[in-house]
């Protein structure tokens, strides 16, 4: 169950990272409120997952999910470049996440 909480925490991290783009510097109230709720939820779920997953593994997986997911959504939502090097780098992050899960 801890791994499910950790994955959900990572997904919420993607949500708040992308949400920051929509807040316009926290001047738009609805995107700002949703972003803050996603931040709090992500931190809470990470804390719950840390009850049984080592901190080094959990934090690396959490940030990896957030980094890879945010980079992919940047490509999809904001027309950021999808170069081969960028996609390969995202693949390396995913491989690292999988490796940490297998090693835990």
How would you briefly describe this protein structure?
With 104 residues, this protein is an all-alpha fold. It contains four helices and no strands.
- Give the number of DSSP strands: 0
Number of alpha- plus pi-helical segments: 4
- The proportion of strand residues reads under 5%
Separation of the first and last Cα atoms? 14 Å
CA radius of gyration: 14 Å
User: Would you list the SSEs in sequence order as H and E?
Assistant: HHHH
- Poorly predicted regions: none
Q: Overall mean pLDDT score?
A: 96
- Helices and strands: which structural class? mainly alpha
Strand count, sense and barrel status of the largest sheet are: none
Q: Using the alpha-carbon principal axes, give the shape.
A: flat
Describe the structure.
It is built from four helices and no strands. It is mainly alpha-helical and 104 residues long. The two termini are 14 Å apart.
Keyphrases for this structure?
104 residues, mainly alpha, 4 helices
Topology of this structure?
Elements: H1 2-23, H2 29-49, H3 55-78, H4 84-103
């Amino acid at each position: 169950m801890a791994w499910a909480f950790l994955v959900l925490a990572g997904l919420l991290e993607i949500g708040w990272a992308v949400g920051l783009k929509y807040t316009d510097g926290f001047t738009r109230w609805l995107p700002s409120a949703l972003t803050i709720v996603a931040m709090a939820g992500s931190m809470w779920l990470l804390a719950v997952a840390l009850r049984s997953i080592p901190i080094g593994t959990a934090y690396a997986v959490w940030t990896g999910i957030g980094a890879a997911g945010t980079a992919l959504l940047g490509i999809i939502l904001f027309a950021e470049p999808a170069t081969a090097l960028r996609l390969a780098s995202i693949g390396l992050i995913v491989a690292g996440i999988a490796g940490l899960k297998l090693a835990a």
